[in-house]
Amino acid sequence: QPCTRFIYLSLLVQCYLIILYPFNLTSEGWQYFKGSWYLDSTTEQSWNESRKFCQEKGADLIIINSIQEQGFARKFHGYRWIGLSDLEQQGVWRWVDGSLLNTSFWYPGEPNNMGSEHCGVLYFSDTLDNWNDYSCSKKCYCICEK
């Protein structure tokens, strides 16, 4: 009967992951949207500190791939770090996974690199296009995604 016990335990673990994993995430403040989980931070930190915060939670800074995801991200108020920077090469914007920026939602006139701004931030505004390039050392909230 060891094989039967193994199958039973395997099914039990799968059920636990399916049923309780989302519950644990939502109880920790994570929000589900179209296949990913999102967490908004409650502490303002630099871009690098924010990225580390997300990574410690098994996530990374948000990568915005669609107009729907941009609409979802806009609901978080205040300046929020996103997983976008041109730290490797000035003017070449990449996401934290290394992919190049394809779809963008820059606020008109951005990015402008005013005062050495190399990290992407979104801020609450009435417009869909609300990204800004910002100094990476500034303290902002962030959105994590996993």
TrEMBL record:
The chain crosses the membrane at residues 6-24. InterPro entries: C-type_lectin-like (IPR001304), C-type_lectin-like/link_sf (IPR016186), C-type_lectin/snaclec_domain (IPR050111), CD209-like_CTLD (IPR033989), CTDL_fold (IPR016187). Gene3D superfamilies: Mannose-Binding Protein A, subunit A. The keyword Transmembrane helix applies. CDD domains: CLECT_DC-SIGN_like. Keywords: Lectin, Membrane, Transmembrane, Transmembrane helix. GO terms for molecular function: carbohydrate binding. Coiled coil: none annotated. Residues 33-145 form the C-type lectin domain. The keyword Lipid biosynthesis does not apply. This is C-type lectin domain-containing protein. It comes from Neogobius melanostomus.
